[in-house]
């Protein structure tokens, strides 16, 4: 994967993707370049329009976060507590009315 990243970085810097440049980038990143892989990559992308390829790359959809689902559960719990609290208040008020009525 680091070979692809190095080639994309050279392309982004508007430099021609050549074996010597790829080797320099990989060495600078701390990798030990494999000459066979470098030659294979250079020959594979020599006839490819990288700008077009990058623009057509599919974007991976992001999975929805779990937090909203949890907040809905918490909201339902809060609603139940509020309803229970209202029922208790109504029962207490009804009991007080019996004292005076």
- Average per-residue pLDDT, rounded, comes to 79
Percentage of helical residues?
Answer: over 70%
Continuous helix count: 5
* CATH topology label of one domain: Arc Repressor Mutant, subunit A
Could you tell me the strand content as a percent range? Answer: under 5%
Number of strands: 0
Alpha carbon gyration radius: 33 Å
Quaternary:
single chain
Please, could you describe this protein's structure?
The chain is mainly α and 101 residues long. The chain has a domain at 1-61: Arc Repressor Mutant, subunit A (Orthogonal Bundle). It is 72% helix and 0% strand. The chain contains five helices and no strands. The chain has helices at 2-12, 19-28, 35-45, 50-56, 67-100. The radius of gyration is 33 Å and the shape is rod-shaped. The model has no long low-confidence stretch (mean pLDDT 79). InterPro entries: P1/P2_N_sf, Ribosomal_P1/P2, Ribosomal_P1_arc. Keywords: Ribonucleoprotein, Ribosomal protein. Residues 65-101 are annotated as: Disordered. This is Large ribosomal subunit protein P1. Residues 71-85 have a biased composition (Basic and acidic residues).
List strands and helices in order, with pairings.
Elements: H1 2-12, H2 19-28, H3 35-45, H4 50-56, H5 67-100
């Amino acid at each position: 994967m680091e070979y692809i990243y190095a080639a994309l970085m050279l392309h982004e810097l508007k430099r021609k993707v050549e074996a010597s440049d790829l080797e320099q980038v990989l060495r600078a990143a701390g990798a030990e370049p494999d000459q066979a892989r470098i030659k294979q990559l250079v020959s594979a992308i020599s006839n490819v329009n990288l700008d077009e390829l990058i623009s057509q790359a599919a974007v991976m959809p992001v999975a929805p976060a779990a937090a909203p689902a949890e907040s809905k559960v918490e909201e339902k719990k809060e609603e139940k507590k509020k309803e229970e609290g209202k029922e208790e208040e109504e029962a207490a008020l009804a009991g007080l009315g019996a004292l005076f009525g």
